[in-house]
Amino acid sequence: MPIIKVQINPLSVISMKQRDISGRTIPTMSTIFSNYYLNLFLFIDNKKIGMACRLEIRNQNEEADSNQLCAIILKNNLSNFFTINPINLFNVNQFYFSGDIKAEDEQVETEFEIEINESFYNILTEQSKKYFQFRDDFNFCVDKLMDFADYNYLNQYSEKIQRYLQFIHTCKESANYGNLQGWYNEKYSTVHSSFEELLKRKNANNSTYLYHVESIKRILFNFKAPEVWESLPSDLIR
Questions:
Q1: pLDDT at residue 31 greater than cutoff 70
Q2: CA-to-CA distance for 219 and 188, rounded, in angstroms?
Q3: Entry pTM
Q4: Could you give the C-alpha distances from 31 to 13, 180, 184, in angstroms and in order?
């Protein structure tokens, strides 16, 4: 069976414990019901593919470290999870675990290898084609918008600019940027507003015009194509 490398992004592990209507955590003797939201990275044919997951755990030791706990369960059960649940790189994949868990004393590696059957390997390979197409189109739009920012008169390119901006917006809304999601939301709004200003102005040498040009280029230079998706964006741009 094919072997793939799996990497857990420890910064992405968020614990959401069950709470009652007042917002208080509900204890059940020494056990608890918890949801962990995390990003996995799968390495297939030396290509890194992101995957959003929700791991529901019952009968968990409340004191267990979140990263260690998720690593133990996924290392031992991920192959079975893939068999039970359809894999979707454009959704939050739901995994369920019930049983007694004893967190190991030593640090559990958040990177490991698993075997998966041929059919699920082929599903991942096929979905990864669209995964990389959307990432490539995102980068294409960013590059094109940076080029347009240097043009003197943008009115004739207005339709393309709006189209590229809309594609980036759709990708951003479908992506899981983790704790950078707020930054992308804020900076996208700035880029969008700056292009609106450039489209209204005719003097490319005006100081305000030049300010917006530099703002667009500075922000877009730091825009990275999503590595993890929670939904399928709109149609590809190309």
A1: no
A2: 8
A3: 0.85
A4: 20, 33, 38
